[in-house]
Design a protein that fits this description.
This protein is of the alpha/beta class. The protein is built from 32 helices and 24 strands. The strands form 5 sheets. It has an 8-stranded mixed β-sheet. Strand 5 and strand 6 form a beta hairpin. Bound molecules: thiamine diphosphate (TPP) and magnesium ion. The site of thiamine diphosphate has 16 residues, from helix 13.
Length: 1025
């Protein structure tokens, strides 16, 4: 077959390709070329510069292009030395320095007016300029309420540098070289007064710029150009004024309208921060002009309805209808779900832009957990980039709107920011807007954060931060525009800190004066941003009162029309479904159960393709052995282990055209060194990923395996967002050890287990949680299986339809939880995720010691679809939800005295014990799929052993593991068969415990031996009674 590259010479010579799209990350060792590391990320260098190399060459440097540490102590000493050399012999220095010194001592013929300017004065002047660049934002007028009490830093005071009143009208020389920013202007000589005026205008107006923490000169210069150049602010012509007035009116009147129609409803209004809407619109228009075609947005409660209505353009009648409590009518074959409050719902629309383009906007649904949606948005954006072949990441962009309290307080903000430059997670920059109303519920900033600004966390990522006074709509729009330009120019994150206020309480029925009395006294008399702007326009004579009234009338009449129309509006659930998913089945529509076996020749071919390493490649010898063993496995079909079965699942899905992405901590090698998906050349450090070469011309990201940052919340959220974009992708997150997943609990609780029910969005995300008791102590033994089972929404007392042709059990359940014990079954459960017409999250308690267990092997015939092969059941080759006893029992086994039901790796220990004791009258069944419960198969086994004592055996403590989930379902199964109830189910396992496991290996071994022996013991168990 053409698409195989099995033994092709190209495969042999290929090394893992560069998926980083030409960016010069220093860990791009997977590429053939070794890129030059950027200084900023290479701080652990062991390379020392030679003296000759480090001697600076005196070259004229435009002021605005100076490195940020130019004026430190060493630079001035250096300058003084240079000056001395120049005084001794002007020809001894570079011509530019000659020019420089001539000017300072008044010798330059071009600048006759300045004499007596000392070099110290020049240095101080430069320090003053730098002072504004670094600290100008401290003096910027950011707070619309004027309540901020900030000490203006000394660096902004000319007296600090020794300048006096008398110097104000003295002319000073600032440079003759070509400079960016206002200091250029071909006016190197300016009075101190005019220099100060310009500095104040540029840095201390309604926008406070923070960018001097960015260690990249070009980026700083780009910004200085935008900030300092006299005509850098937009040309606010009358057209813009009209557009701004209109947009601000919509934003303001929308909230007013909701407030009058639904007086006591919670809507988390935008009042006090209405300029967000014109700001976002301008940002989106500008981004569209610069090539953005699709924006994924995430935001919390505040202003969400306004954004939905005015930015995303969700029909107002629909918003009003939902506000009145209108419930979607159930349509045949469509979801019911539990729904969610109106300010959590997501949606997507196409928005026409001012420039005549169309911009696709999607607002991701989110739970009330602030900021939790951030990584989800970023992951979804990345998936959009992959599926639209947006290799430059210019067409799809993420925008996140935050609250000031949550941005500073929630750790996931940092975890998400820290994904921004990772090659397999970057989206080419997210724009963040902090809707900074200077309060979080009832908490003042001084109690809510230790940093000066709520945005300080973003400085760690070298993002520029534009603080802007939310009452100045023009400034807000300018900052938003600049953010879009930054993102499209530098493809990195940027933050707009929109400093505003909250006109009312936390929500509309909350009383803010209980806790912020002074602030609310000011707010009471504070005009809205719209009033301020209209007044300004009226005073300037640019608009008339009639113009203003006209806009007001137009907006109000549309709002009223939509309100009337909302009464007849019939909400459709379809409104909530998204593009790639058409044809996928809801829980109400029966999806055929498909086989997951693969044709033997395909298995063989892909198997070969993924066991070949390039010629001239020197893998570690242990890895070489693993690959040789894998080659043997595929050749002989025997002893296929876990790691290889997983690779076969990936490879076969790739061949079928699916995208496969696996991410998590150390997943490339695998925490337990079993995967080796990326092989490292021991001589060159080059990397090779065999799964990148399954089909010819395989897209470099089609298979992605990526070590992640050390974050669970952020990375799992990212993969969740990624998985939601396109169903034809197997997206997997693997925890290092299962218990670490609790750091991502919000994603499990509020998105993965309940997202479909709340928001009607499906995901087939797979979560691998290493689990199993092997004496590693309390923190590495358990993947906390019980938690995932406890969140399952299947009714323990109702057996659903289990007949294969009518079964919708999985479709109707919120997720699947499995504890698989054979490589072949793992292969099938992964493939099953894709080979079905619906998507459901899959939680896998994945093994640790089974990865190398001699009995945990499968034959290739269990993977294929050949009738008569061991994997082939009545219906074909599929994932086995339950593995019956291996002793090939007939349909009725009256002589079996005990049926041990278990799940996971304890099976192998039980089986061994049974062999040791030669306990032929004990049957052991493995419940591979715990949730939803395989009632049909469990009942089949119960019927097979009518006289058997029934035991649930687990290695986890009684209050953990699957016991509490299995117990009521076993009772239900027994009752339905008329075979007893609660007291007939015996428990074998560890006693209840607070800690997951003992920290002492000896205790572990003793406990483990006891429970295994007990499960097989000849005497009856009679436990817990
Ligand atoms: C993770 C989390 N913790 C607590 C809350 C409860 N809560 C809802 S809004 C809010 C205040 C948020 O303040 P801020 O981020 O400044 O947004 P604002 O409401 O001021 O717009 C709090 C504490 C929550 N929703 N999520
Ligand atoms: Mg706030």
């Amino acid at each position: 077959m053409a698409w195989f590259r099995a033994a092709s010479s190209i495969a042999k010579h290929a090394v893992r390709r560069n998926i980083y799209r030409g960016r010069s990350y220093y860990h791009v060792a997977r590429t053939t070329a070794v890129p030059i590391p950027p200084a900023s990320r290479n701080f652990h260098t062991t390379t020392f510069k030679s003296k000759a190399e480090s001697a600076p060459v005196p070259r004229a440097v435009p002021l605005s292009k100076l490195t940020d540490n130019f004026l430190d102590g060493t630079s001035s000493v250096y300058l003084e030395e240079l000056q001395r050399a120049w005084e001794a012999d002007p020809n001894s220095v570079d011509e530019s320095w000659d020019n420089f010194f001539r000017n300072f001592v008044g010798q330059a013929s071009t600048t006759p007016g300045i004499s007596g300017q000392t070099i110290q004065e020049s240095m101080k002047l430069l320090l003053l300029v730098r002072g504004y660049q670094v600290n100008g934002h401290m003096k910027a007028k950011l707070d619309p309420l004027g309540l901020e009490e900030r000490k203006v830093p000394d660096e902004l005071d000319p007296a600090f540098y020794g300048f006096t009143e008398a110097d104000l009208d003295r002319e000073f020389f600032l440079g003759v070289w070509r400079m960016s920013g206002f200091l250029s202007e071909n006016r190197p000589v300016q009075t101190l007064r005019s220099i100060l005026t310009r500095l104040e205008q540029a840095y201390c107006g309604s926008i406070g710029y923070e960018y001097m923490h960015i260690p990249d000169r070009d980026k700083c210069n780009w910004l200085r150009d935008k900030i300092e150049t006299i005509n850098c602010s937009p040309d606010w012509n009358i057209f813009s004024h009209e557009v701004l007035s209109d947009r601000l009116s919509w934003s303001t009147l929308f909230e007013n309208f909701l407030a009058t129609k639904w007086k006591s409803a919670k809507r988390f209004g935008l009042e006090g921060g209405e300029t967000l809407i014109p700001g976002m619109k301008e940002m989106f228009d500008r981004a569209a002009d610069l090539g953005v075609e699709s924006i994924v947005m995430g935001m919390a409660h505040r202003g969400r309805l306004n954004v939905l209505g005015n930015v995303v353009r969700k029909p107002l009648r629909q918003i009003f209808c939902e506000f009145s409590g209108g419930q979607p009518q159930d349509e045949v074959g469509l979801y019911t779900g539990t729904g969610d409050v109106k300010y959590h719902l997501g949606t997507s629309y196409d928005r026409p832009t001012r420039g005549g383009r169309r911009l696709h906007l999607s607002l991701v649904a989110n739970p009330s957990h602030l900021e939790a949606v951030n990584p989800v948005v970023v992951g979804k954006t990345r998936a959009k980039q992959y599926f639209s072949n947006d290799v430059d990441r210019k067409k799809n962009m993420g925008v996140l709107i935050h609250g000031d309290g949550s941005f500073a307080g929630q750790g996931v903000v940092y975890e998400t920011l820290h994904l921004s430059a990772l090659p397999n997670y970057t989206t080419g920059g997210t724009i963040h807007i902090v809707l900074n109303n200077q309060v979080a519920f009832t908490t003042d900033p001084k109690a809510g954060r230790s940093s000066q600004y709520s945005t300080d966390v973003a400085k760690a990522l070298n993002a520029p931060i534009f603080h802007v006074n939310g009452d100045d709509v023009e400034a807000v729009v300018h900052a938003c525009e600049l953010a879009a330009e930054w993102r499209q120019t530098f493809h990195s994150d940027v933050v707009v800190d929109l400093v505003c206020y909250r006109r009312f309480g936390h929500n509309e029925i909350d009383e803010p004066s209980f806790t912020q009395p002074k602030m609310y006294k000011v707010i009471q008399n504070h005009p809205s941003a719209l009033e301020i702007y209209q007044k300004k326009l009226l005073e300037s004579g640019e608009v008339t009162q009639q113009d203003i009234d006209k806009i007001h009338k137009k907006v109000m009449s549309i709002l009223n029309e939509e309100f009337l129309a909302s009464k007849d509006y019939v909400p459709k659930r379809r409104d909530w479904l998204s593009a790639y998913w058409s044809g996928f089945k809801s829980p109400e529509q029966l999806s055929r159960i498909r086989n997951t076996g693969v044709k033997p020749e395909i298995l063989k071919n892909v198997g070969k393709a993924i066991t070949i390493l390039p010629e001239n490649f020197t893998p570690h010898k242990a890895v070489k052995r693993i690959y040789e063993q894998r080659a043997k496995m595929i050749e002989s079909g025997e002893d296929i282990d876990w790691g290889f079965a997983e690779a076969l699942a990936f490879a076969t899905l790739l061949v079928e055209g699916n995208h496969v992405r696996l991410s998590g901590q150390d997943v490339e090698r695998g925490t337990f060194s079993h995967r080796h998906a990326v092989v490292h050349d021991q001589a060159t450090g080059e990397q090779y990923c065999p799964l990148d070469h399954v089909i010819s011309n395989q897209n470099e990201e089609m298979f992605t395996v990526s070590n992640s940052s050390l974050s669970e919340f952020g990375v799992l959220g990212f993969e969740l967002g990624y998985s939601m974009e396109n169903p034809n992708s197997l997206v997997i997150w693997e925890a290092q050890f299962g218990d670490f997943a609790n750091g991502a609990q919000v994603i499990f609780d509020n998105f993965l287990s309940s997202g479909e029910s709340k928001w009607l969005r499906q995901t087939g995300l797979v979560v691998l949680l290493p689990h199993g008791y092997d004496g590693q102590g309390p923190e590495h033994s358990s993947g906390r299986l019980e938690r995932y089972l406890q969140m399952a929404d299947d009714n323990p007392y109702v057996i659903p339809v289990m007949e294969p042709t009518l079964r919708k059990q999985i479709q109707e359940c919120n997720w699947q939880v499995v504890n698989v014990t054979t490589p072949a079954n793992f292969f099938h459960v992964l493939r099953r995720q894709i080979h079905r017409e619906f998507r459901k999250p899959l939680i896998v308690m994945s093994p640790k010691n089974l990865l190398r267990h001699k009995d945990c092997r499968s034959h290739l015939s269990e993977f294929d679809d050949v009738q008569g092969h061991p994997g082939f059941d009545k219906q074909g080759t599929r994932f086995k939800r339950l593995i019956k006893d291996q002793n090939n029992h007939s349909d009725l086994e009256e002589g079996i005295r005990r049926l041990v039901l278990c799940s996971g790796k304890v099976y192998y220990e039980l089986d061994e014990q049974r062999r040791k004791q030669d306990a032929k009258d004990v049957a052991i069944c493995r419940v591979e799929q715990l949730c939803p419960f395989p009632y049909d198969l469990v009942q089949r086994e119960l019927k097979r052993y009518p006289n058997a004592e029934i035991v649930w055996c687990q290695e986890e403590p009684m209050n953990m593991g699957a016991y509490t989930y299995v117990l009521p379902r076993l009772i239900t199964s027994l009752k339905a068969l008329g075979r007893g109830g609660y007291e007939d189910i015996n428990y074998v396992g560890r006693a209840p415990s607070a800690a997951v496991a003992t920290g002492f290996l000896s205790v572990h071994l003793k406990e483990q031996a006891e429970l295994v022996q007990k499960a097989i013991q000849p005497e009856p168990i009679n436990y817990p009674y």
